[in-house]
């Protein structure tokens, strides 16, 4: 399944189709939120100049998320090694609604934003209420503060009842379970609330 998501992201990059590129942030978010996204796996399917387009689409996506006030740990990690200021350049494009050029293609920020919000809105409807969606984003942020990406992925698999591999079970028992027990401690929870008052 993971390979399919990364293959799709690579194929979208190869398409050079502005309509697909405008939907890239939605596809990326869906793949990443289900734990299927791997930048390395997607880039392994691309030639050097195609990798540059893929990196530009990653930056475009990260800038869109930030411009909408969404912070995804996986998005920050995906663009962490890129040139300083590159993300800000894309954020300025979204703020000013000016054309974003990737390769020979010209993308409209308002189309990218509308596509993402439409799909995001459908996701919110599936979660019953907008408050539940905000809570989910808060939970995503809190989990990212406590667990590194791989630990968070295993934690969520266990929570959803998805079968763990033997290595994941061992890792869960050795490391993640201890953190989870600490999180479940009522006294620790009360002390944390008291400190934050």
What would your notes on this structure say?
- The chain is mainly α and 197 residues long.
- The protein folds into two domains: 2-128, no CATH class; 147-196, no CATH class.
- It is 76% helix and 3% strand.
- It contains eleven helices and two strands.
- Strands 1-2 form a two-stranded antiparallel sheet.
- The longest helix has 20 residues, at 48-67.
- 22% of the residues are buried.
Main sheet: strand order? 1-2
Form type: globular
Number of domains: 2
N-to-C CA distance: 45 Å
Biggest sheet architecture: 2 strands, antiparallel
**Number of helices in the DSSP assignment:** 11
Please indicate the percent range of residues in DSSP E strands (runs of 2 or more): under 5%
What order do the SSEs take from the amino end to the carboxyl end, as H and E? HHHHHHEEHHHHH
Q: Could you list the spans in which at least 5 consecutive residues all have pLDDT below 50? A: none
Structural class by secondary-structure content? mainly alpha
């Amino acid at each position: 399944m993971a390979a399919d998501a990364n293959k799709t992201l690579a194929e979208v990059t190869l398409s050079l189709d502005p309509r697909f590129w405008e939907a890239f942030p939605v596809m990326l978010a869906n793949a990443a939120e289900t734990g299927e996204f791997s930048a390395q796996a997607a880039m392994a399917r691309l030639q050097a100049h195609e990798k540059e387009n893929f990196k530009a689409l990653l930056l475009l996506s990260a800038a869109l998320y930030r411009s909408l006030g969404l912070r995804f740990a996986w998005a920050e990690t995906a663009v962490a090694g890129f040139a300083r200021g590159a993300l800000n350049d894309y954020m300025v494009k979204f703020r000013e609604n000016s054309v974003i050029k990737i390769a020979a293609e010209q993308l409209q920020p308002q189309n990218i934003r509308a596509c993402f919000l439409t799909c995001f809105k459908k996701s919110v409807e599936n979660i019953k209420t907008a408050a539940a969606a905000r809570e989910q984003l808060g939970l995503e942020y809190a989990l990212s503060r406590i667990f590194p990406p791989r630990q968070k992925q295993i934690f969520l698999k266990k929570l959803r009842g998805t079968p763990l591999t033997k290595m994941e079970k061992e890792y869960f028992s050795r490391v993640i379970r201890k953190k989870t027990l600490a999180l479940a401690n009522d006294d620790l929870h009360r002390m944390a609330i008291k400190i934050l008052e």
